[in-house]
Amino acid sequence: MPRASYDPAVRTLTLGVPRERAPREKRVAIVPGVVAKLKELGFEVVVESGAGEAAGYGDDSYRDVGATIAAASDGPYREGGASAYGCDVVVKVMPFETDEIAKLREGATTISLLYPARNPELVKALAARGVTAIALDKIPRITRAQKMDVLSSMANLAGYRAVLEAAAAFQGFFGAQVTAAGTERPARILVIGAGVAGLAAIAAGRALGAEVRAFDVRAAAKEQVESLGGKFLTVELEESGEGAGGYAKSMSKEFIEAEMALFRAQAKEVDVIVTTALVPGAKAPILVGDDVVACLKPGSVVVDLAAEQGGNCSLTKPGEAVVPEGVTILGYTDLPSRMATTASRFFAGNVLALLSDMARGVAGGEAGFRVDLEDEVVRAATLTHGGQELPPPPPPEPSPPAPKKDAPTIAKKPEPKPESATGAIVFGILMAVAFTLVAFYAPDAFVQRFTVFILACFVGWQVVWAVAPALHTPLMSVTNAVSGIVLVGGLLQAAPGGSSLAVILGLCALLVATINVAGGFFVTDRMLGMFKKGGPR
Amino acid sequence: MSPQAVTVAYLASAVLFIVGIKGFAKPDTAKTGNALTILGMLIAVAVTGFVAFSATTEGLPFVAGTIAIGAVIGGLLARSLPMTAMPELVGLLNSFGGLAAVFVGISSYLAPGHVYATEAERNVHLVECWLGVAIGSLTFTGSVVAWAKLRGTLSGKPLLLPGRHLLNLALVGATIGLAWPFVGEASTDAGLTWILALTAITGVLGITLVLAIGGADMPVVISLLNSYSGWAGAMTGFVLQNDVLIVSGAIVGSSGIILTIVMCRGMNRSVLNVVFGGFGTEGGGPARKVEGEVRELDVAGVAAALSTAKEVVIVPGYGMAVARAQHPVKELVELVQAKGGRVRFAIHPVAGRLPGHMNVLLAEAGVPYDLVHEMETINADFPKTDVVLVIGANDIVNPAAVDDPNSAIAGMPVLHVWESALTVVFKRSLGAGYAGVDNALFLHERTRMLFGDAKKTADALVGALRSL
Fold first, then answer.
1. Which of A335, A478, B226, B408 could form a disulfide with A524 if both were Cys (CB 3.0 to 4.6 A apart)?
2. Reported ipTM
3. In this structure, is the dihedral angle defined by the CA atoms of residues A232, A233, A234 and A239, taken in order, positive or negative?
4. Smallest Cα distance from A307 to chain B, Å
């Protein structure tokens, strides 16, 4: 029997994974792949039977990695009962419903999406139950918290899926076709809002062969859009829409009018519109009004990723597909859930990152995690603690404006140091002095050798610059061998007729120089033997 | 053999050296080039032997025996050492060249029977001896220290003696200053003392100079020592009035200088800066701090990325050589190729501890050389690359060189790996590179870290790719 309550002597905590209750929700908050890592953190995982079924993770797959399967739970929390809701930590995808909250143990911690702006009564109920509620949708969008950012990971899936849903509803090719039966231009997609979802949609659209344009009020998005092969649209009005936390802020009236004119013009050309514009804590702005829809050709598709918050399209019915006047408008709110296997894995990865991060403050040997309200990330995501609702934390600073791509950055670019002119001058002077000395002072024989020497330097200079950099090591060892030609000198000195000391030194020179020559040549040969060209491809 | 015949034979030998080294311009012709160079060497030795023993063959067995022993030792060294020990072998062989030059210089000074037509001729000869011994001795001790550093006997860290600039200056001054009493000395016995003192002084200079140089600057030092051994040979040629020595010495000297220049350009530093240190002391202001989140990726994730990638570039660094990861890396290449991706290698000029070090290691592992590209040819291709694997490299892929004018490595040419879609960095741990500079690449949003020993990681990656 699993322990459903926390016993300090054993130093493990239980982590419960209930089945999702929301209709059409197929995801599960924890997948078998992260169970081992959770155990390392000191969690014993309790999964409600059938919780992962819809996402492709059967009970056995959890059992195999050492999780406990609890029977489907109903009724309130019972001390000692094996219920996923009775655990120290309960992790869900969707917000806890009122009857679920009743099953939670007092003092437990919940981790899930909560959308407090839309669900104030749930937050109250969680506080009243004495639960510490962590809202994954409130994790700040700062770099450190990126790996815990469920909204981003789900938006990525949603953006991708949006394009696939559009492709399924669209009655034509996305990519260009040239066939005997006729040719087709590529479909044209307009993506409004180039956040995580928008960028994923651009990438998916491009991958299917469509032509993609994208619009975003934030200038910083331009580079990202273009890096994915999309065309970035702009309006003829200077205004930055960079708001706090990576979201766009609301814009002026003039700007919105210019924007609408742009969308109307675009609607005449494009086949698919994907809208992804969300303003945090507020109803989604209407960007594709009736007038824009009227400009679309029959058979066109609009996918509204903001459907859950009212929609960016005036005709959107959240959760449904509607076809007014031949234009299909998809208002699906369960796009990530349509890719439940991967979505669950990403979700679980985000939760694991959060728990690992919260485990850092825990003393060695202790299990679990700590709700550290000094921590920027934890503070922002914790909505209730100790029976109270926590006031919202101070808002984050707006992101710095995108650097202008022109003058300042390029001017600051460090240049490679110019070839030193003083070095060349010093070298020239030295050469001049040497030449003068030789010309006026040196004996004839020396002048001859000096000539040979200087010419050989230039020949060597020319020949060696032509050597392939790949062969610099063999070059080094072959020149090394050649420099061993001092052995010729040793040979001359070791010849009979010299003083005995001179001969001995000559023999020594001969020995070491021969080692140098033989070693150098052999090693060069060995190295060169390894350089092989690839076969024909 | 007439003097004309000897001169012509030496000429032939010199021409063979030049043509031989020219063969190193391309990997296809390099082997022939090496053979021609060997032929040139054989001719030079044979002709010299003929000249030296034309009067009497007395002592020939000694000489022949010495050559045979030397050849066997050299051959054994070259055959037995593993390829990873190549840098140290090059250093060691270089030291022998320098030592030989010292012996020949002293021996030539002691050899009787010098008849000088003029005072000037005598002075020139003595100065040649002096220079030959000085450069030879410097090359010898410097190469020995470099050898010890490369094989890890001595720490790779620069050893900065207090007042080393003054000490070095004093040693150089003594080297030049002692030439006057030496040239003025009529008796060879007294002169021998001077020349031994010179050997000692320049020997110490070689040690102090190379001790002060750190591991990653070794390519420059090795190139420079290689060049010195050439100049020492050329000087010996002047001493012995032998043109083939002068020609080959000059070629080797230029070659070393060129390699030195190539390496210094690769680091955007001057030779003086490398040799005398002072790294990181320039620059107008504090280098930018790099802050942000390090993102990790596991082996399975990297394998998945590689299995779908169309363009893959691998950037090896000294860390790959240390971990001996080149063999699994080669398997990795074949697996990615089998999955339809194109794999290429990008080699920075100063990657590793020798010029061209990475090329040799990859060749040893069996990577075809036409997959291995230089920085200039591949740098423009990174924006079109799907996955870049950085294996044991740091400073050569640091974006600070391009965008932070206050960085210690500002202006150094680097591989622009961060322009690719995904950069995976194989690294033992999060540390600064040789230059002690933080690397913003590790925090880049498209960079993922794969921590661990490069060889083990590469092996695991091979396994993961096989099972995909």
1. A478
2. 0.85
3. negative
4. 30
